[in-house]
Specification:
Blueprint lengths: L6 E6 L4 E6 L1 E2 L9 E4 L4 E5 L10 E6 L4 E6 L10 E5 L2 E5 L2 E2 L2 E2 L4 E6 L4 E6 L13 E5 L2 E13 L7 E14 L4 E4 L12 E4 L4 E5 L2 E7 L5 E7 L3 E5 L5 H13 L4 H6 L4 H4 L4
Parallel strand pairs: 3-7
Antiparallel strand pairs: 1-2, 4-5, 5-6, 6-7, 8-9, 9-12, 10-11, 12-13, 14-15, 15-16, 16-17, 18-19, 19-22, 20-21
Length: 279
């Protein structure tokens, strides 16, 4: 993660085989905590990241046909990592992110215009926006972006002396409507405040989050507050949208007949794409 590279790894999800592809053009800084989005016209967009010391501020545009990369620096802005990006109607939209000193406001969403290769700003039109954060999960479903959990910067007030900054975790779930540019907070949240986790929307339309870190605090016998970061391997499932009728039917069927093997299910006429989920 700290070596500048001219190659990328590709996983074939059918065979689970890895291969390496070398690209030409501008070199990409070796790092971690960057974001990647792929557009329908065959480009991979990699933005930001960190090498442990420096925070990068370049958008790398890799053509998946020629494997040539061109980098575009975002001027007058500090670099960041642990942000998320989504591709939508010619835009690579960047949600959140930050560095050890600050996190970005989610009421202001920078985006890279893929047609002009320029940076623009989209301001949310909602009156109530989510707190700025990094190390969150971000998933696009139709015309919505789902932002879950993450890490936020807070301060402990010390009266007239000074305030002590510290990081805290979040468990909230927000939807950003790509048509109206408005945020809305869901009434449901994760059972645990978490950051550095992964999120994905399954075939059933549910949001799944896995892993990440949480903060654990306690007071010593001397009354001193201690705080550590603890890794997690929890899998959470949250119903964001009402499932389709066929998904509801499959869930009801599998709940009662999970003892059947794949051959028996296929013989009963269960669609193959459902049966593959349990293999």
């Amino acid at each position: 993660a700290v070596v500048s590279t001219q190659s990328t790894g590709i996983l074939d999800v059918k065979t689970l085989d890895w291969r390496t592809k070398t690209f030409s053009g501008d070199a990409i800084e070796g790092g971690y905590g960057h974001s990647i989005s792929i557009t329908d016209d065959g480009f991979l967009y990699l933005y930001g990241g960190c090498d442990g010391t420096f925070y990068f501020n370049s958008m790398n545009k890799i053509c998946l046909r020629t494997w040539n990369n061109k980098s575009f620096f975002r001027h007058n802005h500090t670099g960041k990592y642990r942000h998320e990006s989504i591709a939508h109607e010619g835009k690579i939209m960047i949600f959140g992110g930050g560095n050890p000193f600050a996190v970005d406001d989610l009421g202001i969403i920078p985006y890279f215009c893929t047609a002009t290769d320029t940076w623009q700003i989209l301001k949310a039109k909602s009156g109530h926006n989510p707190p700025g954060r990094m190390a969150h999960s971000c998933n696009k479903v139709n015309n919505h972006v789902i932002v879950t959990g993450g890490q936020v910067r807070k301060t402990i007030s010390q009266g007239t002396v000074f305030d002590i900054p510290y990081n805290d975790a979040l468990s909230d779930i927000w939807l950003f409507n790509l048509d109206t540019s408005c945020w809305s907070e869901l009434s449901v949240s994760l059972p645990q405040k978490v950051f550095f986790h992964s999120g994905a929307v399954g075939c059933d339309g549910n949001l799944y989050t896995f892993g990440g870190s949480k903060y654990v605090s306690w007071n010593t016998n001397e009354g001193i507050l201690q705080r550590i970061t603890k890794r997690m391997n929890n899998l959470y499932k949250v119903e964001i949208f009402v499932p389709t009728l066929i998904e509801l039917a499959w869930a009801a069927f599998y709940d009662k007949f999970d003892f059947l093997d794949s051959t028996e299910m296929l013989e009963l006429g269960i669609p193959e794409y459902f049966v593959k989920r349990i293999i």
